[in-house]
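Need tokens for this chain, all 105 residues.
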Amino acid sequence: MQLTKGMPGALVGAWGGDALPPAPFSQAIYLTHFPIAGAYYVEGWADLVADMQAGDTLNLLREPENEHDTHAIKVVDAAQKKLGYMPRRMNHIPARLMDAWNTGG
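Here are the structure tokens for all 105 residues:
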């Protein structure tokens, strides 16, 4: 989709007419992929992932109190069982975004 200037101060989609862009949160947004770090330390990890299938939902949870990494982002399955962490080398920006979202900032 290309954006073009419409009325002053507004952007409209180039698809024209009265069509509106998708509503916020109406579809998933793919941002990145990464290997799960720290899986070696998760007891029963092999059993947890043995039951998983492609397309299963995983959740990311901030863990600012983590003593090893203040930007830690925990990866959990649908039952909230820990699978590991987002690698430290790539968690700084997502952690800050998650913190801003949670504080309304």
